[in-house]
Request: fold
Amino acid sequence: MTATALDDPVLEELRQILGGDHVLTSRTSRFNRTRVPAPFPVHRWSEYLPDVAVLPTSAEQIAEVVKLANRLRIPIVARAGGTGLADGAVPLRGGIVVDVKLMNRILDIDLVDRTVTVQPGINMLKLNEELKKHGVFYPDDPASYPCSLVGGRIGTSGWSLIGGRYGHTRDLVISMQLVLPTGDIIEVGDGGGRKIRKSSTGFQLKHLFMGHQGTLGICTEATLELVPRAEAEFAAFFGYPDFETAYRSTGALTKSGLATLAGVVLFDEQKVDYLRRDDEAYIPQPPELRSVIATAMYGTLDEVKPAARRLMRIARETGGDYLGDEVSQGDWASRHDRYATPLHGRLRDGTVVPMCWHCEDAAIVYSALPDVRREWHAIAERYIEGYGIFDDWGMFFYTNGPYKPWGDYLVEIDIGIWEQRLDDETWAAWVECKREIAEVSLRYGGSITACHGATRAGDVELVPLEMGGGFEVMKQIKRALDPNNIMNPGKYLLDQAYEDG
Amino acid sequence: MNGFRLQAERPPEPQPVKDGVVMRLEHIYEVDPAAMTVFEQQDLPVWDTLRIVASRWDHLAWMHDHFADRVISAEELEEDGAT
Reply:
């Protein structure tokens, strides 16, 4: 249905819409807008190249590009930071990559009604540098905080490290403007007001366009929540003799009822072993330290201090040894910027090799965490033994619920992959490994993905199973909004929406 | 001839700390170069290593300041009263 090659008249029409400097056809411009940090079949990179990359500066330009794409049946893939981990921004059928990085302005700061309106190409760290002057903060804090962009956070329905206190992307985006796959520009929120947080008018359309992986439109503006800048931060890391003790302590800490508790992160034994390789906070730790919990609190001084005392007491009463202020504060600060992790790959004999980073992100309830952990490590071990280019970097378990640290967890196993050694056989093995891991998540009543999305091979085949009858609804919505299947086609198996003609 | 000479900035020989980890400069851990046969260690002068380490501490301090006005330590809690 969609074309995959662009000829000169099409490129000329794009230049008329955007200006010549904002239409990029060079190999480097296209190669650099193909993959994302997730594991990628580098030996087949050229199969995923877009035909052209465009850099719009307005919603109207994007709307004209989308209308052109509809007319000529050209695929469109939106790309913000390109830091996602589920291939949402990877073109499957060439076409036009709409790169929103030039749309990076702050449009309005409203300190009375506590909102900030931005374009999708702005980075949260840069946004907060500006907001600091006004004593407010936008608390959307992923591992990619210094490099991801607001548009991508919306496209993936992102998760925040401090979401247990402040909520996640879907809770922090009040409303947005977007270009539909037809080229129409609409605004969606809770009801119709741009700054209304809670409404019961009409359908909850904002949530439909949260986490769609660019299959339903392109965000061109977003109105975001502003919270008071925290007076105080308290971070405390605790060591445990084994995972089971740390797991029970996690349960106690997350159910403590402390409102300023922003996040709890449980590190399993394999994660601590991995960190002992070359992380200065863990190399000198005694061998008896096998598992770790990281905690952080934010709020006013009057709230945080008494809460911190109670937190310390709970951790100690449940078997935790405080690791000290230097480790706690230093390692917590490093949590906001985790994309350097791929430098830690090892083969079984200890040889250092450059590995890319697979970051699993299932959502699993507390009661199932030990079993999921056991099964995932067993899967990783089989593939490491079988293929020699994988590495188990251990697991994290992060509080996942918005505004509450209990209930379900973002469960992460990090697997290193020696990408330079990938070929068709090892890539197929990786996809199978990924599928086995995702199947475990579903078997324990979880979700394949807490925040990255499930658009990749190895995940996407299981989406109909996870969604059940909801997958039919997804197809109907896709067909209704994107009649020509031009918006990120091929993602989420949504081609099936068009198979009956 | 005056000026910078890389040879004059070479770090001391590495001392083993544990499997896979060595130390040349005090409190600065490095991956054992013997394990870096595929991915070789860069040849850095001492001043550059110290610059990178200092930058890392600056970055962490900056991150704290970015997220909150002040950082409370457990030591401070103990000074205020029993934890």
Notes: The two ends of chain A are 11 Å apart (CA to CA). DSSP finds 16 helices and 19 strands in chain A. Chain A touches chain B through 43 residues (CB under 8 Å).
